[in-house]
Amino acid sequence: MSDIFPKWTNSLPLKVGIGAALLGTFALGAVWYYFTPKYTRVGYKPTQPVAFSHDIHANQLQIDCRYCHNNVDKSWFSNVPAANTCMNCHSIVLKDSPKLELVRQSYTTSKPIEWVQIHKVPDYVYFNHSVHVSRGISCVECHGQINHMDEVYHAKPLSMSFCVDCHRNPELALRDPKDVYNLDLKVDAEKQLKSGLKLAHDWKVNASQNCSACHR
Prior knowledge:
Layout: H1 12-34, H2 37-40, H3 54-60, H4 65-68, H5 83-90, H6 101-109, H7 129-134, H8 139-143, H9 160-168, H10 189-202
């Protein structure tokens, strides 16, 4: 009696099993990667060529963010200060400290310090710092309590869902412009919502949820 099914079907269960195992491994690996800090970068804290404490400068000395990042409210990107900005103070303060040798060299030679970038979004994502800052989004919304960081680390995921959640409910993050750089500002949820709704209305804030807003 001849076989009902072709002989090649005898190995079909094995092939299906191997395929299912490979697919499962791939799915597990994808979930493991995309839901861990390695992908979201949360907690990423590289060693910088020069130790710089935001806690000392922004918190203890109360230096305004815009003194060093002077384009943050004017440009699509937040600039890293050049050595001459540092030397405005450090030509007097700690002017001979060995910790600042690389800063002095950069100032003398005009060769930029090779800082390690911490906060970044994919190349296919467009983000404009000035638009957000000028409409009342404080640094802490995306960077965490950076004014208390001795070493800067990646505090927020900056994922698509993170951005979309804010675009859906911008009133939960909007501040009066005078409070944008007050990184220790504490406002209870009810007052924040009331103030945010008013600011969103007065400024006609329409945080787009269209793909083209960020993917251009």
